[in-house]
Amino acid sequence: QVKWKGKDLFDLVCRTLGLRETWFFGLQYTIKDTVAWLKMDKKVLDHDVPTEEPVTFHFLAKFYPENAEEELVQEITQHLFFLQVKKQILDEKIYCPPEASVLLASYAVQAKYGDYDPNVHKRGFLAQEELLPKRVINLYQMTPEMWEERITAWYAEHRGRARDEAEMEYLKIAQDLEMYGVNYFAIRNKKGTELLLGVDALGLHIYDPDNRLTPKISFPWNEIRNISYSDKEFTIKPLDKKIDVFKFNSSKLRVNKLILQLCIGNHDLFMRRRKADSLEVQQMKAQAREEKARKQMERQRLAREKQMREEAERTRDELERRLMQLKEEATMANEALMRSEETADLLAEKAQITEEEAKLLAQKAAEAEQEMQRIKATAIRTEEEKRLMEQKVLEAEMLALKMAEESERRAKEADQLKQDLQEARESERRAKQKLLEITSKSSYTQSMNSSTTPLPTDLPSFNLINESLSFDFKDTDMKRLSMEIEKEKVEYMEKSKHLQEQLNELKTEIEALKLKERETALDILHNENSSRGNSKHNTIKKVS
Questions:
Q1: Binding site: which residues?
Q2: Which of 169, 281, 300, 393: disulfide with 277, CB 3.0–4.6 Å?
């Protein structure tokens, strides 16, 4: 509305977002190439806003926390900071070394896609994502597939982290970057030397224009007695009166007003952090702890359900596999039975033929015996006839003997065939009995399988948990939660060491692919600081 003040518009945005940690944020606009922030106690249209319609304001973080994990309570606050810091890193407004860029990208992927699943997240699934600063991509002779492979390797290690946890891990790494949360302004000292003034949550810092990473001088907020400006001249009075007053000039009066706004806001937050939390903040933190505990319990419940479902599926698969195995055994037993029946039929037929042959041989042997008797009874008068007759008798005897042996052999063979037939019928009986056993097992397995295969969507135990779940957190719950938080801190320190080792390993791995001629001034400065063992915080301590 026309009569609205800045606070009315700002409060409307915060209510729409459900945001309660409003002190970090503001509505930003640009006028004459200079950034400005909407004043809460002044009418919106009384500001020196652009005349063209519609008037555009950007809802952004104006002040940054010293420690994101301790200070950012609401999940929406964390999410808004994550989005803003990620954009600043990708737009190269915050310098980020290549190895840290890959790690941050992996947390951004975890926040967006959830847990890594090789069946879903196949090669090329990050092809359309903007995850790394262009400066990093251009610095190495690496294809998009190679970058994706390295990001995915770290992404797979973040399994089990919810979106808010992944975003908080992102912020915890980003807050240690030298340019995180720093607003830079071009200034001149009394000698006319061009410098940069940096304003952030820790204090005021003076930089060389060519080095935004390492400040020359720092003034922590607790060591500053007074800040003021007159026209374009700005004055910083240290708490220690022995230290000289620092004066500088900015390009525009509007810039001095902005610097003073940022100084007042950051100083107020600096002092607030060192006091006991207000009742509102205590209430928000208590609600956040309860919400975190509730989500943790919900995640554990879902993990248990998932585990039970997976175990049920594994049991079902095992039963199906066993059923298939039993079916195969039954099929093989059927085939064996059929072969046994065929063999038994063949043996029976062969035994019958052998028995008939034996009868036939016995009949021939009897005929030969009769012929021999008839020959003996025949009188042959001449010696020659007698000799011939004797020879025939001998041959007849030999033939009768052979016939008797053959008949005996055939009789034995018939007996053996009868024995084989008996064994075949016994084998057939055993095969039928085994098939009957397998069939009974198969039906039992099928009944077991039918009772376990369906995966019920609402098991009684789950309903019981859901119905009895209470979020009335008592002192014992809070103590347990505190102990868990302490344990998480210890684990975090161990993970940090492991993380640094991983970062160094990746840096060594991709160093051979670096194009030295494409290194920017900030890359060179960062490498020099790293080789000296300088970090953001110990550098500020040294130059304070």
A1: 39-42, 257
A2: 281
